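pinned: reference chain
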Amino acid sequence: MLLAGACHPGPVINTGGNTVGGTIAGIVSTVGKAALPGRKVTAINTVTGEKFETTTGTNGGYTMKVSQGTYRLEVELRDGEKIVKQPGDTKVQNSDLDPQRHFVISGGL
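pinned: its structure tokens
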């Protein structure tokens, strides 16, 4: 598993010999647009099940490098929270940057 801990925006460095396809980035916020820092965001390859994880920064942003493939994105929810908006499946090719993969969460705050 490859972990990336940078927050969006900012550089992400390929730290290993894994074949890295591209970068997924976005922001996790409330309906009122307040940033949600410290939330785990997971990208799951829809074919292989391979997972990549990162945590949102103080601005609610996240950035992670992933292998080529199609990913389902998930975000950590807390009691009483619901996802109002989430990105659809994200297809990543070599050297792609897939920004604006945003989540909006309501309730529980």
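why pinned: The CA atoms of residues 21 and 94 lie 4 Å apart. The beta strands are 22-30, 40-45, 51-55, 61-66, 69-75, 82-85, 90-92, 96-98, 103-106.
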